[in-house]
Amino acid sequence: MSLSVFWFLPTHGDGHYLGTDEGARPVDHGYLQQIAQAADRLGFSGVLIPTGRSCEDAWLVAASLIPVTQRLRFLVALRPGVISPTQAARQAATLDRLSNGRTLFNLVTGGDPEELAGDGVFLDHRERYEESAEFTRVWRRVLEGETVDYEGKHVHVRGARLMFKPVQQPRPPLWFGGSSDVAQDLAAEQVDVYLTWGEPPALVKEKIETVRAKAAAQGRTVRFGIRLHVIVRETNEEAWQAAERLISHLDDATIARAQQAFARTDSVGQQRMASLHGGRRDKLEISPNLWAGVGLVRGGAGTALVGDGETVAARMQEYADLGIETFILSGYPHLEEAYRVGELLFPHLDLNVPEIPQPGKISAHGEAVAHGFAPQKVSQS
């Protein structure tokens, strides 16, 4: 099976070391453009753009990089509770048209109560997933061309519709990651690609089997992807040395503060990440070549595959054998590591490199009038 490999745009910062400003670098548009263009040339399928108050806005970053890339796809976040599903559908269709079908959307419910409160979201974990399910039902149907009336507990729309459809039909794909039971129920009902963070293969296998069974019970199938960091070098010894160097500026106080901050989240996925290392730096290889050092201070994806190209490719194949089709990778600093992955890892993979999409035909239409009704064509007699 050919694998799709994505890269990551570090809109919250980048550098040579974790947990310190030592070796950090400015992340401006020029730098993000360098990373995106490198990924585009090297054969990555797309880029994940993160979301949250510590990040540049994912939608604006994606839009700004469309003209300077050719094949790269942009995985951007949908935020239920922060935006209406109808407005989000219009924005999604617009971004899909402007990029000629190079958009993917990642449903993010959020897990940090402090950040959620700042965005005006005061729902608990279960309520957020209820709202996300209602949001997604409307978002999907509107993008697929329906006129939607929907009255739920959290979402209420009447006559919601699009005038201009997206390039990808019936709509752009929807991605999602969540480890709780309610999250997996949502994935089974509505998403196209279910994402997991980089847990050991046995734990990933359990999640895949659970989501696959829940989807089958609803007459659906779901594809699977995984989010990991990667440290690849010419030799295994060099790779492990690079891993230790990445956390060489961390002290115990910094780790403790980070773990305390992660503990306030109600994200089951974050809790599972933290449990892999327990905040300890002496037992970080939690599975062969799977290293949890990133998660000592970084929220979200906290594990990295470490080794030479052949070794990392073999570990990726273990996940692929479980049903993983897409790998979303990252490394520090992201520009240099994109090239290392392209040069040292890609030759060992059966890589699915997307074609450069060709412009589609756009139908001519006059200016919309009367609150969104298109003018009627005049027949010639």
From TrEMBL:
It comes from Winslowiella arboricola. Its EC number is 1.14.14.5. Residues 5-325 form the Luciferase-like domain. The gene is ssuD. This is Alkanesulfonate monooxygenase. It is an enzyme of class 1 (oxidoreductase). Homotetramer. InterPro entries: Alkanesulphonate_mOase_FMN-dep, Luciferase-like_dom, Luciferase-like_sf, SsuD_RutA_monooxygenase. GO terms for biological process: alkanesulfonate catabolic process. PANTHER family: ALKANESULFONATE MONOOXYGENASE (PTHR42847), ALKANESULFONATE MONOOXYGENASE-RELATED (PTHR42847:SF4). GO terms for molecular function: alkanesulfonate monooxygenase activity. FMNH(2) which is absolutely required for this enzymatic reaction, is provided by SsuE. Catalyzes the desulfonation of aliphatic sulfonates. The lineage of its organism: Bacteria, Pseudomonadati, Pseudomonadota, Gammaproteobacteria, Enterobacterales. Keywords: Flavoprotein, FMN, Monooxygenase, Oxidoreductase. It catalyses: an alkanesulfonate + FMNH2 + O2 = an aldehyde + FMN + sulfite + H2O + 2 H(+). Belongs to the SsuD family.
